[in-house]
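Hey, resending since the last one bounced:
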Amino acid sequence: MISLIRVKKDEEAVLHNLMQFYIYEFNKYIPLKLEMNGSYKNFNLERYWDDPNYHAYFVKLHEEYIGFALVASSAENSPNVIEEFFIIQKYKGHGYGKEVAQNLFNMFPGKWRISQIEKNLPAKAFWRSVISNYTNGKFEESIDENQRTIQVFDTMEINQTS
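The structure tokens again:
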């Protein structure tokens, strides 16, 4: 069974450990250097404990960590955003990422904006498929000034027309 578990401040080190795998895989698309200690630089995660509009979740399959999701929930005139999303390699292709994404869309109703860097073809394919399935094709896609692919949709519109 897949579950989303809110990351507590005292679990930040576990999240940073999972993020090392994420950064390693992401390194295919944007080259990043290892720090002098042999690991990638940690993300600054303070806002996930200090700001009520930022949410960090572990993704667990039964009791095993298999990924994480970092979400910025909508605030005045800004949509919900998946800032970072990761399922470890051995669990990709089993539908867990799709289930997690849909759970997040349900947890944070309203407008969403999902982005992927242009070179990350697997991420673009994943999000197009998940969003198209979730919205019955009712989403907009564009490329922004930074050459990122952007999908925009509103769960309130989807739920009203379903």
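Strands lie at 2-6, 54-61, 64-72, 80-87, 111-117, 140-143, 148-154.

Sorry for the duplicate.
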